[in-house]
Amino acid sequence: MKKLRVICLLLCLDILCAPICTYAGEGLSWTIVSDGTEDEADSGNSHMEEWEIGNDTDDKTGSANEDKSGNAESEDNEKADEKTESENKPGEDSEKDDEKDKPDSDRKKSDADSDDDQSDDALKGDYPSGNIYSDSEIKEMIDEKYKELESAYEIRDRFKKTKTIDSIDSFILNFCGDPLSDKKIVFLGDSITAGNGGTLTPDGSGLDYTNFIAKYTEAEIVNLGIGGAPFEGNDNDDALVHRYTDIPGDADIIVLFAGINDLFAGSENFGSLDELEEGTYCGDIYQTFKQIHKLHPDADIHVVITYPNKMEEYKEYINENWQDYADVQIELAEKFDFHVINLYEEGFMDSGDSKIRNAFFKDDIHPDDLGSEILGRHILVHLIENYI
Hints:
The chain is α/β, with parallel strands linked by helices. It has 19 helices and five strands.
């Protein structure tokens, strides 16, 4: 009898547990198994917790086994599909084979061309092509800068004036192009033109302002500067009155830059604009200008008046004013319709100012390399004014 009861109990337990085991094996949650109401579901929460805890390992194991088998089957199917697609598209494979057969240099070249194309497209997309200013806009800006130069000459602080002028000069040269590229420019002058204050170059001369002008233009430049050269020719073969014949006949622009050595020659050689006697400062300037005008009727001729300088203060040696010497050059230049670059009146690079002298000069009169650079820029800005 006891055995019968045990068998019946086991059969009842087997019947009651069969659905739960079946659904648990399928990985379903307790809420899905229950078909009862919310109350019934709530009342079975404790059973659900026991179920989830008790079968957590089985769920993970079952899921993992199913995932592995499913993923393996899926990967096999994908490989089969890829193989079929590969067999159906022989052209792509042949292209890949051809690419593999190419030499490394060809493949690199192809990649580089592709990168260049992408780079070009990116640049075209990010930046405008060509100059962002029209020719008329550039001309208008440059004209405005020349007006600013006139205002800069009125600045009282000599150091600030020189720096301001150089800033404007740089702007003009950066935008004007090279209007003198097909010209021959000849510079006839003294030690400032010869570069006596500049760093020595391999030929034994020093860097001078014409070297820096050459950085801004492709024009042919001829430097005829000699240290100590005056205009007046008494006992000085290097005087300009004896050397104007050295100027090439095909010169397009001629720049005369001298006179400071005449100041040290003394008043006995000054002469007079009324007499223009040979062997005097006034007479020999007149003779030099007259012959250059005659020999080079089509050339643009510029007379540079030397900037204010510390040398003017040495009254015990000169007893005269540089302004008197400058006025002679200006008056005679106007007589022959020459251009005048009046650095003295502008107050540009006044070496009498200690800041300017320390920043831009080798001594009281000769510019160093930096001084020659800003001097060259300013002279060039004057030379190109009628060509832009």
